[in-house]
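[Q] Does anyone have a clean structure-token version of this?
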Amino acid sequence: MELDAFVADSVVAVEGKLYAQGAGWNVINASQLPVRHARIGLGLLVHVPYTETNVPHRFDVRLDDSDGGRMPLGDGPTDDGRLYVVSGQFTVGRPPLLPPGDEQIVVIALNFDGLVFEKADAYNFVIEINGVELKRLPIRVARAG
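[A] Here you go.
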């Protein structure tokens, strides 16, 4: 399985297509730290091979700092009340007219509101499919001025 992905200001998935605002950036310039970023969107395009259709697949997304520490992505059911991994499942059917060997693309839009970055650092959104890391999307928080 292959994965294309990008960072944007906001992403939505509609009828098998991704619509993104402000795509293609990787730096947050902050006048002071900590900084709360209004929204970060991730667009995922999962290329599902013909032989991987009709079975469930799982995706996991987390945000790591430069030391590999996990950053909170929102509120969640953990002991500290924070969510550190966003997970989901998808299954792709095999349409009768799909030629053998053709892949299908599954689009996933994720938006994270109000992420707090305590320090200027390099961060990575880490994306796994079926427990295998397929992509790292780096972003940097820099202190401006």
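[Q] Thanks! Anything notable?
[A] The domain at 2-143 is CATH 2.60.40.2550 (Immunoglobulin-like).
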